[in-house]
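hi! just following up on the protien thing from before. the input was this:
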Amino acid sequence: MALLKQGTVSSHWHMLLRTQWLPQVTYQHNPTRTYSTTCQLAKQKSVAIFKSHHPSRLNRRVAIVTGASSGLGRAIALHFASHGAELVVCADLKEEPRPDGVEQDQTPTHEIIKSTYGHRTAMFVECDVTNATQVKAMVEAVVEERQRIDVLVNNAGLGNVSGSPLIHELDEKDWRRVINVNLDGTFLTNKYVLGQMIKQTPAKLSSATRASNPPPGLNTGPSDVHHLARRGTIINVSSMLGSIALPHGTSAYCASKGGVLNLTRQLALDYARYKINVNALCPGFLKTGMTAGNWGNEAREKEMKKLTPWGEWGRVEDVARMAVSLASEDAAWMTGEGVVVDGGYSAQ
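and the predicted 3d structure came back as:
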């Protein structure tokens, strides 16, 4: 097979598309062909993480996770690897986690995956999701390496970049920056990944799926696993604020995430005929670098905990586990949904 080449792409953001390779790895792509890829050795570091391993749920999936260096994206990428993904492509502006007071381990996400699951693969791609040239190059690079993309998680995003001003006080540049990353970036990654997915042959369900192996006593009629075969899965990360609002001047963020949620519904309808399911994850208050201004303030943190019926902040793991379910065969007949994981906040 052709090897993925290192390269650079210029942009107005002055970011370079860079790929970080793995050691020489031989993996089984399909039952009849074995591929070998030569990779540039990245720094190895032993990290004990996610020792429980569930190889059947995401077996042989090739997944791209944007914003994978920190926070929720990092957790999703690590959970995907834990559940048996064949390749996890960690896409972000930088390899290292952002120093936000949450990430204690500064090891890059893709290096954790490689050092923890030596028989699996991971790759870092430096990519600005607002730059069409870089997004297109990332997709082409992954396809050249593994011939398909099974899962895309659009996680890269921004919170309020200038505090919480009311809209008449909001700088137009700050509005545009949030919309550009959260909504335009989601558009671009969907555009190029969906263009690839519709060319792919639908992936058959594995023998481990519940659809092909119903429990004893459940009469589902003649076995037909092909009706759930998919060409791909898209998971767009929206927010509970995509459908509700807060009295804190979050207009740009709410507008962007509302756009992501409704874009998800539209894409679900447009691409169902291609057997590509598109869903959204809508997290509530999570303890990440994006929300550090709230949980770092004792009074504010206490107030926000009271607002959530569960009485606690969410953890990135809570949402990452749901991402695994959406990417797995459990959600093969589910599309167009916004899955809210917010401790009951939006149910009030």
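The two ends are 54 Å apart (CA to CA).
Residues 1-52, 207-211 have pLDDT under 50 and may be disordered.
cheers
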